[in-house]
Amino acid sequence: MLDNRKILVLAPHTDDGELGCGGSISRWLEENCEVHYIAFSAAEESVPEGYPKNQLREEVKKAMAIIGVPDDNLKVYNYAVRKLNFVRQEILDMLIQLRNDIQPDLVVIPCSQDVHQDHQTIHNEAVRAFRHISIIGYELIWNNLSFHTDLFVELTEEQLQAKISALEAYETQRHRPYMRADFIRSLAIVRGVQINKQYAESFEVIRWII
Predict the structure, then answer these.
(1) Which CATH architecture has domain 6-207?
(2) In the chain, domain spans
(3) Are 85 and 117 in contact, with CB atoms under 8 Å apart?
(4) Do 158 and 125 meet the contact criterion of CB atoms below 8 Å apart?
(5) Model's pTM, two decimal places?
(6) Which pLDDT does position 8 carry in this prediction?
(7) CA-CA distance, 146 to 167, in Å (whole number)?
(8) What's 189's DSSP letter?
């Protein structure tokens, strides 16, 4: 239970946060937590032909509205996809400013074993910026060579469905296998079985402060 805490979710790209912890976000909001969602790239270079370049910005807004994150708590920056490492110091400075402005109790980031270059950059700079704050890493198993299932968040059917519905808002990403509702549900079932519950999401504990 994280009642009334401030939680900061960092997504290298729009949709990463929902994929990694969308069900948990839904649960945290039900527990009266204040959730902030930061996406660093709307991946305009990767938007499929036939869509406006800002399409992913619109899709993440719809996804956050479905889950229940207030629009004022959503920020989407304009960094180029696959090039976050080129602006590492700028991102670190931004994270320190976010730390000072939001003062989160928990920060949720890509896990340490994520091989995507943008995800690695956000992970590394977040660990630097938030080293005195509790940090957990979400799994995106198609990017992970391995994953430490240190922490589990039990989900209800309604919380899992909120995650699935939010991901369905990403019209441009529906062709990706990991966006399939049956995959999302299957992974939640697997993580639930590990803790003898119906559904769960799992996280790597990077730093936990009590």
Answers:
(1) 3-Layer(aba) Sandwich (3.40)
(2) 6-207
(3) yes
(4) no
(5) 0.97
(6) 98
(7) 24
(8) H
